């Protein structure tokens, strides 16, 4: 009787894993954890890739978009919540960290901060922690979703069953000549991105 359950269990596992879709880079290859990629605009002639900048002249640094002609920005490394993951997958929690040396003592792992006292925006900053999924690291987890034929970045961590985080698409908040990565307040559209192997 026990042997009859094995095919049923295997078919359930196959169905569950068949829904996993890997994120692809600009070459059509799957994104792999621990490999450097640039996050570049999914639309052309807007601005450059994602980089680091100071919002208030001090640390920690925030995630910004390089100006037009500013290149691909700094490369990032993805670390999925599942430590056994071989690929970065659509809709799965992942840490994102710049692979760059800065003058700040904080890590380059992304985290959502805010809201800002003046603008009320939630901005993506650095100083997060890699791994250890749960309520203490809730602000450090992001997702990649398909969007407009490319991808969008989303903040809506699923690493804590009892937590109720603010959720939304990431967009670009333009302040003067600076472009900051921020959580959409609902009326702003997600910003389309692609991933280019460094």
Automatic annotation (TrEMBL):
One of its GO terms (molecular function) is endopeptidase inhibitor activity. The keyword Signal applies. It comes from the Eukaryota. Residues 1-18 form the signal peptide. Keywords: Signal. The keyword Signal applies. PANTHER family: KUNITZ TRYPSIN INHIBITOR 2 (PTHR33107), KUNITZ TRYPSIN INHIBITOR 5 (PTHR33107:SF5). This is Miraculin-like. The lineage of its organism: Eukaryota, Viridiplantae, Streptophyta, Embryophyta, Tracheophyta. The gene is LOC120280028.
